[in-house]
Input
Amino acid sequence: MTTLNRSTRRRLTQLNQIPSVWEGDRRPLSPSDESDSEEKGECIVWVDGSQGVVRGIDMVRPESGPEAIVRTLLRAMEYPQGPAKPARPQKIVVCDREIQFFLRGVLQEMGITIDYVPTLPLIDELFREFQENATTQPPQLPPQYAERLMQAAYNFWDTAAWDFLEEHQIVAIELNRWDIGTLYASVMGMSGMEYGILLYRSLDSLKRFRASVLQEEESLDKLEDAFLAQDCLFVTFDLPGQAEEDEDINLADLPASEIEPNFGNIHPLEGLRSSLFEEEALVVLIALEALNRFLRANHRQLASEMFPNLNSRYRIPIPEDSDTTQMASVKVTTLPEVSKELFEMIELEDEEDEELLSTKAMPTLRDDLVPENSFLSIGMVSWETVEHLRTTLGHNELADKVVTGGDGLPVILIQTSRPKAKTMIEKIQAGGGVKGIFFNPGEDPFDDNSYDLGIIQTNNGEMYLFGEFMDDDPVHQEARKKWDRRCKKTKGYCGVLITRGLMGASRGNPQLQDMMALFEARSLSHQDLGLGTLQRMLQIDWE
Output
């Protein structure tokens, strides 16, 4: 059985021991009769029964061992949640004999009594609340409309409207029902990135969002604000069950049977909600069915070079389960003038970007940040380690925004000697910290090799090369795929981890005491930065 290091035991026994009884347990959050998907995890909770406060809580994979409950307990002692102060209890009670025996072995000589009790009232109540909240969550779609809505979404997928409609080519759907006058539809998918349709409640909201995207495309935070400021209903398509996407798969190439529609609402005051209430579901259903008819009837004209001026009216049956069982008269109209206005906005922004690029010198890619012979790794550190480093090393403003998705934070690990690591940290701090990390294509015209260049950008705009990786290296290709998947789970948050111990036993596997700095940042896209393919240049020093 794994035991605590002596130094750890000494550190814990130095904590103030309070006359409290703590309850601890691990349980699945989902009811036992629900699907046993890989995404389902278990929740570990430690509660101070005397004060009635949660000191530590963690989600873990079901297959994780009993060590996980100890890790959460140690954090509950040293880094408790909320207003509680670091402390160790006089007594711990658990309702699992195996956990009791394991804790007795791990916590021996620490002056803590470990007892078994058949029930844990506080934790039982806490998990009851968890389950009630889970079961009271509304379904994604009202049950009475779900089947017909799903069919309408699959019918829209089959039209493949993104093959002939661009996002700026707007179609108006006039309902005049359920407090909705006209919806303004924008089809996503021609870029091959996100597939679906946005149904804006007003033309003003659509125009504001398009203008914001064009103006703030270099700022991820401002883009997120613009996204949440929309006023629309949406239907998007993805792989079912949150399956990990292969970068080489284009969703448009897949049959409808391998695609899952997702429905939701975005509003400036509500934010994003991945579900529809009854009236919203009716609005989306009637709008989709009318639009599907319109797309099928006018496919050839819509696919022409000029966006045509078309309109049609359809009678769509309203579901019998709604308040009324009559037909809805829906008018569908293309808006060439609006589409032209939106396209001109794009062209104007492109012209301004070109002018800016022509007057702005190409930034220099520096290679004086990472010391020679450093150990580099594209990997990940657990959220537990991230929290420890934030506590011991301090954290930047971005840390509060980081999305804790997946198993940990994607990081670029740079291991070097202690003096060189300190110099590197000081240089990054002088540049205002790390703004972003990205990979950019590069080539060497002298030997016809292609590279994937790893680049760190600091907040003062400097760009530093941290690694040159051969494009066709299968090891790097796999590392990049993992990096991209992990960054997707954390919504683009990542970091640079600088450690010492290059020549010691921890080379390639630094321990906590070797970690000297963690700079949390964003994963950037080289397309957004517009650097193009970088070429190695021969520089001659004539002096």
Observations:
- DSSP finds 14 helices and 22 strands in the chain.
- Residues 336-359 form the longest helix (24 residues).
- The two ends are 65 Å apart (CA to CA).
- Residues 133 and 372 are 54 Å apart (CA to CA).
